[in-house]
Every structure is written in C-alpha cells, then in structure tokens.
Amino acid sequence: MKLKNSIKPALLLSTALLASAAQADFIGAEAEAGVFLNNDGEDSNSYFGLAIEHPIPLIPNVRFQHQSLEEENQPDLSFNDYTLYYEFGLLWLDLDLGATFRQIGDSNNSTIDGTYPLGYVSAYLSIPGTPFSVGGEFKSGGGSDADITDTTFKVKFQPLPFVGLEAGYRTIEEQFQSSTVFEPKGAFIGVFADF
Description:
This protein is mainly beta and 195 residues long.
C-alpha cells in the first residue's frame, strides 16, 4: 500500500515534466542579422537568417540564410543558403547535421550562377553558469560544378531570455569550373533573437 502511494506522485510528476518539456520544444525559431567585414573589399556586407525548428520525427528543420557579397571589380557573389537539418541536444552541446543548397544568382556570370549542394554541420557549446556559448558552422561541397568551403567561428552572448549578440570570423572559399577562385573572409558582428 505504501509502495502504491509513493509511485503515484512520482508518476504524476514525471508526466507533468514530460508534458512541459514537449510543449517547450513544440516549435521554435531563431533569427539573426548583422554585418560581415570582408577583408578583401572596402565595403561591409550584410547577412541575415531565419531557422524554424519543430519536434516532428524524421522531418528536418529548415534554415534560410542570405549573405551579401558585393564588391567593386568582382562578380556579385551574394548567395542564399537553404538548409535542411536535424538537431541533436547533448547536455550543453547543440549539434546540427544536414544539407545546404547554396543559390548564387549572378546573372551576369554564367560560370558561377547556379545552385550547389553542401554538407552542413553546426555545433555550439553553452558555458554553464554564463550567458556565453561558443562554436561554429561548417559547410562543404559543391557537386561537380564547384568546390565550396564555408567555415564560421562564433561567440554568442545572450544576457536576456530571447535576444543576444553574436560575433566571430568567417572564411568562404569558392572555386568554380572556370578555375576562378574567390576567398572572402573577415570578422562579423550581429544580433539574434531566439524564441
């Protein structure tokens, strides 16, 4: 009789915790925007993105990112990244794995205009007891038409529940069929909202 009485509150507590966890992870979104300071150019370029996450098994999460890369005396390398990914949470580590499709839309240069498939990995480690997290993102691929590598190192500072600041360094290496190589790289700083 005592065993039944002790199990009942434990079951109720477990059910309540699971229900609250499922509700908290039902759907989420993260938006970011900032400035990319390309070392190879005189002008700064903007970036922005939006990620939508959900708890539905087997269906990947979705992320859209835009990077402006407009400089004088070179092709317009601005691109849109469409990423499908799965999220894995391990204690303080957030790990994402998936695929990115990079769309470069320079209609004046047919050798780089197109959509390129890339592998996608993202990992961020939250530092316990602080509003900081550190990590990065890596994209690589391009198919038979290009060789593309995009590496980002980032520090996030989130003193408030839904908004924060981000800063880091990004290196993009793109080589196309024409043997043309572009290597924009530099620091960036921006803001993000997590809700």
